[in-house]
Amino acid sequence: MIKVIVNKKLCKGCELCTDACPLKIMVLGDVLNNNGYNYATQKDQDKCTGCMRCALMCPESAIEIYK
Amino acid sequence: MIKVIVNKKLCKGCELCTDACPLKIMVLGDVLNNNGYNYATQKDQDKCTGCMRCALMCPESAIEIYK
Amino acid sequence: MSQLFMKGNEAIAESAVRAGCEFFAGYPITPQNEIPEYLSWRLDEVGGVFVQGESEVAAVNMIYGASCAGKRVMTSTSGPGLSLKAEGISYLAASRLPAVIVDVARTGAGLGQIKPGQNDYWFVKSPGHGGFKTIVLAPHTVQEAVDLTYMAFDLADRDLAPVIVLADGVIGAMMEAVTLPPFKDTYPDKTSWILNGAENRESRIISSVTNDLNKLESFHVYQKELYESWGRKDVMVESFMASDAEYIIAAYGTSARIAKTAIRILREKGIKIGLIRPITIVPFPYEAFEDLPYNNVKGILVTELCIPSQMIDDIQLGVLKRIPVHTFGRGGGFIFSPEDIIDELNKVFSLED
Amino acid sequence: MSQLFMKGNEAIAESAVRAGCEFFAGYPITPQNEIPEYLSWRLDEVGGVFVQGESEVAAVNMIYGASCAGKRVMTSTSGPGLSLKAEGISYLAASRLPAVIVDVARTGAGLGQIKPGQNDYWFVKSPGHGGFKTIVLAPHTVQEAVDLTYMAFDLADRDLAPVIVLADGVIGAMMEAVTLPPFKDTYPDKTSWILNGAENRESRIISSVTNDLNKLESFHVYQKELYESWGRKDVMVESFMASDAEYIIAAYGTSARIAKTAIRILREKGIKIGLIRPITIVPFPYEAFEDLPYNNVKGILVTELCIPSQMIDDIQLGVLKRIPVHTFGRGGGFIFSPEDIIDELNKVFSLED
Amino acid sequence: MENSLLIAGFGGQGIMTLGQIIGYAATKSHLKATYYPSYGAEQRGGTANCAVVIADQEIGSPVRNKLNHIIAMNEPSFKRFEYNLIDQGSFFINSSLIKITVKKEKANVYNIAASELAMDIANIHSANFVMLGAYIAATKILDKNIVAETIDDYFTHKKEIAKISLIAFDEGFRQISKLGGKGCHDTTFK
Amino acid sequence: MENSLLIAGFGGQGIMTLGQIIGYAATKSHLKATYYPSYGAEQRGGTANCAVVIADQEIGSPVRNKLNHIIAMNEPSFKRFEYNLIDQGSFFINSSLIKITVKKEKANVYNIAASELAMDIANIHSANFVMLGAYIAATKILDKNIVAETIDDYFTHKKEIAKISLIAFDEGFRQISKLGGKGCHDTTFK
Amino acid sequence: MKNIYKKSSIISENAFCPGCLHGVASKLIAEVLEELQIHQKAICVLPVGCGTLNMESLKLDRVVAAHGRAPAVATGLKRSLPDNIVFTYQGDGDLASIGLAEIIHAANRGENITVIFVNNSIYGMTGGQLAPTTLVQQQSTTSKFGRNTSTMGYPIKMAEIITQLESPTLVARQSLDSPRNIIAAKKIIRRAFENQMNHKGFSFVELLSNCPTNWKMKPIDSLDWMRSNVIPYFELGILKDVEGGK
Amino acid sequence: MKNIYKKSSIISENAFCPGCLHGVASKLIAEVLEELQIHQKAICVLPVGCGTLNMESLKLDRVVAAHGRAPAVATGLKRSLPDNIVFTYQGDGDLASIGLAEIIHAANRGENITVIFVNNSIYGMTGGQLAPTTLVQQQSTTSKFGRNTSTMGYPIKMAEIITQLESPTLVARQSLDSPRNIIAAKKIIRRAFENQMNHKGFSFVELLSNCPTNWKMKPIDSLDWMRSNVIPYFELGILKDVEGGK
Ligand SMILES: Cc1ncc(C[n+]2csc(CCOP(=O)(O)OP(=O)(O)O)c2C)c(N)n1
Ligand SMILES: Cc1ncc(C[n+]2csc(CCOP(=O)(O)OP(=O)(O)O)c2C)c(N)n1
Ligand code: SF4
Ligand code: SF4
Ligand code: SF4
Ligand code: SF4
Ligand code: SF4
Ligand code: SF4
Ligand SMILES: [Mg+2]
Ligand SMILES: [Mg+2]
User: Is CATH 3.40.50.970 the classification given to domain H22-241?
Assistant: First the structure.
């Protein structure tokens, strides 16, 4: 099982992870974080292959992946 | 006939012309000019081929050549 | 004349265009970026030349070259960039080349902060090696920034010398209504000294070096006389509610306009206070301070957007310690408010007691 | 101690080595070339580092880096090079980095001439943007150049600040007997602030910028206090035959030693004349002029190897126009003689009448 | 008359645009005006703010710490400037993003759900104009039509934005005019 | 005692070497000394000169325009400095290159055919040491042996040059000692 | 569960704009230094530019150099502390414009330092002016109508210029636009630091980056623009790699 | 009799040391300008260095730039006076050390100017310090034991670096050590000025020169040294020649 955790405090809602995810399962949520950004979440955890593309791409190091 | 004239006022006695002359007929004289330099003269006018090497080489443009 | 609501930096740039600036070279630095940005397209429109230099060093030397060609030239920068231009400004002065240099000052030495500050006062008093001075004009409103920039070109051409317009981050970044001056259509004739090819005339040299030491010394004597002449005819100073004042605020640029608000508030309370505002930093209006009615004036507060005070010595050269002179400033890019000035006045002079 | 007959520049360089200078970066410029030339081999001998920078800008930033590492560092230059170092000096001051900067002054703004001059006085009073000061030490003999250079390293380390040694072309180029100081063997501990890798400690930053404006403002307040403390404890001034003097020559560096000869000549004629010689230009010895016995002193002549006078304002801040102050100088690289000074004294004060 | 306004919020909320438009409109109205953006490192992410002074005489300081009016677009700026408001000053609050209540006494507080209203109109980016409408309606410091004209001029090359902005402006104005309406309530003299 | 000497000539005539050696020798003799080279653009080709002051007390100015002694190695420097000599001052003239006579009155003039004498010894480059010998002999300002030692030290890594220089120095000294000898005549109080 | 990707412990919340690849460049450096276990010996010389923002977030010894002068500052540091790891982090305005002489001379001297060059084709920090690396026809606030080659010349290829010099031992260019290129970038950054550890001399890594704020694009669009405009002009790859060093 | 070689009328007695090839470089420029009949349109931007000595002897409009900044000054002049002929005359300390950024950026912008670069491998004017072009092992007053590549790097090849850039249209290197090379040098100088007349953009001519004074050699020995040391390192030839220009 793969677990992708987005640190909502760090996320700036840039969407680079959503772009990088080959399965397009990273998306921005509706809620703003303290800095005023819509932060990213993984919408379909089961599909995730743990390819780490999202995490590699994230400029904020906001994504941690567990296996 | 070739005439090589050294402007003794300009000459700094650097010997570059003496080095450049294939016939080694440019030499430094014994007398100092106003700036304290032994200036160059042509010692064997007849041999001169007018090749202009001496004049080309002279950093002071001190050598004029007539033909 | 219609009024336009303009950003200080852009107003300075447009004023330069109207003053006939034909060549500008600069390098980005906050808080003056709108000057090069504006001129990058505006000069093209009027047939002038804009070059973004690879550095401030290059930029100042580019205007050096264009000034040799007789163009009206300008460069602009802020603190760190002014340091890098020091050698070039010294060369301009020593080569007798007119140029306008705008410094939109920020706070702090080193990189400091891009926040406003009046931190370059000491530096502009002799902005480079070799012992020279330039006229330094210090606007306190956007309108004045426009007017002084416009005037700077004429002064530069008159003296064949660089002239500095010393603004600060507030003046550069703020917007305010201005009336722009008309386009200049006549300029001083420079054909007698510029470089444009030695056709039908002797060849010329523009140089800050000469092997003729007597000539060099004559130039130094000329410089001395020039600076003295500035003191006689180019001093500009505003006296604001100062004629009957018992207390004087001495301030220039942004801190002067803040002081004006403080003075209005205090005058409403019946306190006799006024402002003496140097408009020219060089030549400094020493006389305005020398000739104060010392029987009436009780004290002076020098307010600047920097710590420590940089203007105090100039003030004392006029005041000669005859009355107490205090200083008040904020560093770190903070801007004091009119209320802060009032508090300080109360502290040092117990004004409202 | 044995006396060595040494060239000023080389003596300065050797003194730096003995003061523990471990890193020097410079760029050639006359009349200080013997400093980098000497250090290029000498530092290697003592395990230090010499780097010829690609420019003065690079050189000052190299010593900035080496100072971050805790080394005792120096750079040297003359006029135009000092302008190019202005930004770096400002960074050193704002980043609280110790460094010694030697300026062997020449004449004229721009390229000027490599002949001696005391032309950088104005400039070294605030040699860069942002409103900072450095201590400025001005030797008048080769021995004093040695001693002040030696001391400069300690002052720099004490204040964590750049210190300037302001010599001139005469001091740099002349030879004179000197006694060299011993090699320093203890240095201040810098381990609490230098960069050497964050091993077993928190990581550190050395920076002239901070986003914490309060911290920046505190630094500005600290600067103010530092400069005030210099005024209290670091002022150095020589009073030469001045205690009973009716006439005072004010001069520093080479012009002071020329003045000494003039004074000896005049004293032999019974004229009561003396010299006040600022050894520190910053902090300036205002008190020496404030506290003159004004009932006795009739006038002051400021002599400098430059035109116009650059020290006059500082003198007036002490004298406050209580007695006549005249200035005398030569520009263009000319050196006045003792007789020239005497002539000028006669002219302005009718001394020998 | 001399009135100092501070507009504050996140970078990207159109704070600067608002300040400039008020300045332009004041100039058009033959009033004196200054606009001063607080520029600085803080612009990246953090708060952005600008100061606008409008007066009928020469303006001294363009930056004030005693404010007649505040338009706060987000919580951090709300907190930062709350105590700079003078007594009897007016506080315009984007209640969509600010959930704290004004602690300061003697303030006129206008809560406008600007972000939500803007979303209803087109998108969140016109929330600033909703606030502008409310501000003009409540303070009457400038003529509504002149402000509207100014908005139109400002976006002269961006007709679509001009249209949306004007709708948002009207909506904000309407909220105050109909006082007590949805998302807006007057909490004077709390 | 305070004595000012100026040495002047063409670049390349060893002017600076001479000045420095006198300074070293004075220091060795426990006297005060300053040496100041006139550096500058003029070094390329034109004249080179240096000032040497020797004294038994602290030296003020290292550059004087009233000179006790002048050593002139060529005509241009002769002309340039002639009038800086004080009355009763001494003028050492390389008469091989200087064909003008001293116009100044009240001067001790020593004409030494230094270039020629040097050429006789080895080459023209030691003409300066011939002058030095004459200078020391005539003025006795420094001890002959100390000067000779200093020359030896100065060229410590150039034994050949040291040797020639010392011979030249001796020759110059001899010229004055035997006063009135070849190429040297005393024209006091002309 | 095993953590297979986590934030490097030597960086904290950064101050870059959303989607700015400065964040990626910085985290790669942090990761590499940590992996090589040299973060406690490392000294980072920051530029003036958006890279300066690292001063709050990179937990290493750091110094902020004057604009363009990082290579000179690094020279002073490394010559003083030859056993530490000294690197510069510089933008394209900083390195290729005002600091051109400093970078070329540090490279030419073969200083044993590592240079990380973040090339985003623009002056980010000051609001989007023309950089020496701005692409032909690209708009900026000082080239409103696009870069005009006849007055502004062509984008400078720094890696190619550095390669011309004798001393540098590793010169490479990579891009940060995609996970695949980020992996390659990390690899070459690692090589560049290993080079320094092995005393091989000067290493230069150019990283193509973006500036969504001043390019006035959404971050994801900026990546597309990089792929279709930036990368084709600035070819990726290792330009010089002297095995064994000097 | 016909005069077949005479002094150009636009130079007078120069102030260089005896045997210094600065004299040759200067006279070639004078000859070319006169032959092309552009001396009355020409403006010479002089450097700080021994080239400054031309200020007394070159009878053209001249300006002395700050050390290293001649290309920036020339940019200002040429942009202001596009119909004049603007050229810089620079030494190797001036151009390749302190002024490196200025020359590369002027070249990169493709300024329509001509650069004459007199490379004598040393700082002449200031008395013989190490220059960026000083040869490996060559002694100077700041490299007493010879240029040590591990701390001072390698001699910089400016013509090669300029060639890397897109904009320059003519880049060449010649030597002044012999009559034959002097003829070749004159030819390429002529081409470089023609290039400017034809609005082809930036031309760069590097001329290998000597400094007998600071090399501490007799002038004729300095020529030998050039032939056996300098020329082999700095290859002669035309490195770039874009026909038709831009
Ligand atoms: C001497 C000097 N000149 C100019 C500036 C202003 N300045 C700050 S950052 C910067 C350039 C930033 O561009 P770049 O180096 O490309 O970095 P980026 O922000 O794009 O990462 C400039 C010009 C300065 N601080 N100092
Ligand atoms: C800013 C500045 N730095 C240094 C100098 C001193 N300086 C004068 S000429 C020169 C270098 C000369 O070398 P080069 O450019 O090679 O010319 P050359 O004399 O060899 O022809 C230097 C460093 C100066 N005048 N200005
Ligand atoms: S890449 Fe990172 S910062 Fe950007 S949206 Fe995804 S998690 Fe957030
Ligand atoms: S690990 Fe791969 S598949 Fe999973 S969310 Fe990230 S990018 Fe998508
Ligand atoms: S080359 Fe010229 S200067 Fe040199 S010796 Fe010959 S004529 Fe004289
Ligand atoms: S022209 Fe030729 S042959 Fe005649 S002197 Fe000159 S070099 Fe010799
Ligand atoms: S301005 Fe550009 S380079 Fe700077 S942080 Fe923002 S996006 Fe990145
Ligand atoms: S110092 Fe060297 S380069 Fe300068 S003129 Fe003399 S020989 Fe030529
Ligand atoms: Mg960039
Ligand atoms: Mg050279």
Answer: yes
